[in-house]
Each structure stands twice: as structure tokens, then as C-alpha cells.
Design brief:
By secondary structure, the chain is mainly beta. The chain contains four helices and nine strands. Strands 1, 2, 3, 4, 5, 6, 7, 8 and 9 form a nine-stranded antiparallel sheet that branches.
Amino acid sequence: METRMDRTPLTRDFFDRPVLDVAPDLLGRVLVRTTDEGPIELRLTEVEAYAGEIDPGSHAFRGPTPRNSVMFGPPGHAYVYFTYGMWHCLNLVCGPEGMASGVLLRAGEIEVGADVARTRRFSARHDRELAKGPARLATALDVDRALNGADVIAAPSGPSGPLSVLHGTPPPRDQVRSGPRTGVGGDGAHHPWRFWIDGDRTVSPYRAHVPRRRRPS
């Protein structure tokens, strides 16, 4: 018997919790991106937790800056950053205001709007690769810095914003796996704060941090 997906929007209270509670609980939830071409619905299959000023791997580790200011705001907002001079990544802010924790959305399965996503991810060989990795996810959903700070909590009445999150269908607890975060080095390298649904083909491959070598002068 097929289980129907719960389309109830998540509330602010869902995100107003410790990041290590929110991150695994986001698996199986459905991120909705509203675009001019139509909606895209993404079932989240892989995420990473970042614990702000106590986490050396977090952008907020050294305190607030113009770049990370959204992370210090209220929970339930999008934090979008630009990396390597070419890619955007989408995070959801959680925890109490001022704590600067967030969850990086690393991968998911596009269940609605794959035709729209393909126009932005034309190099994907299969639909399961459309959002397989954080940069691919943001590209498929047409996410850039214009959405930084967007509220993902749907209003009780009236149209929702460009991003919202539905209850979805969380996986059984025994299907949730955890391990080190991808590409994080230093003191934060070994925190098992990456969470994914075991066996899901949209989950991205793990890559350890590789220090950049300086060219000899």
C-alpha cells in the first residue's frame, strides 16, 4: 500500500530546535520551490548540520559578518552562500535567534517539476542526478543570493513564498545514517553531522577534505 505524502507545511517551531535534532528530522521532508515556470518539489535525502560559533566548520564560527548575518536571525529562513566563485548552496537556519546554526541541504529527489529542473541541470544524465550534491540542488531549484533570508514558513492563509517545506514522509529511524561532513577539515572534520537516507540513489558521494597545496614561489 502506497503511503500518501503529508502536505502539511512545517511550522517555525520545527526549526526552533537544536541543529542536531533538526538536521536528521529534515530527511524525507519536501522542499517546495515556487518559480515562474511552475513548482518544483524536492524530497530531502541528505543534509549536514553546522552548529555556529561552537563549530569550526561553520561560516558563523568567528561571529557575525555581512555574509552570514541571516544565520544569526530567527529560525526558518534560508541562508544562501556563493562558493568557489561559481556555485550557490542552500541552508535552512534553525535554533533560537542569535545561535547561528543551520542545515546545509546536500541532496534530494525531485518528485514534481523535474522538467523545469532539467532546463537548469541539462548536464544531468539521469533525474536522480538533478539535485545530487548541494550546488546541483541549488542550481536545479534556481536558488541564488536573491533568496538569502527568504522565510520558508508558509503563511496560514494566502500564497506561500518562493520556498516552503512540507511534512513529507520521514524515513524510519533505522534507515537514517550519519558520518563526517563532506569536505570539512580541521577541528570539525570528524563530527558525524552528515545525515542521509540509507540506500537512496540521490545521495551524493562522500569526499574527505583535501588541503590546498601552495604553489612553490
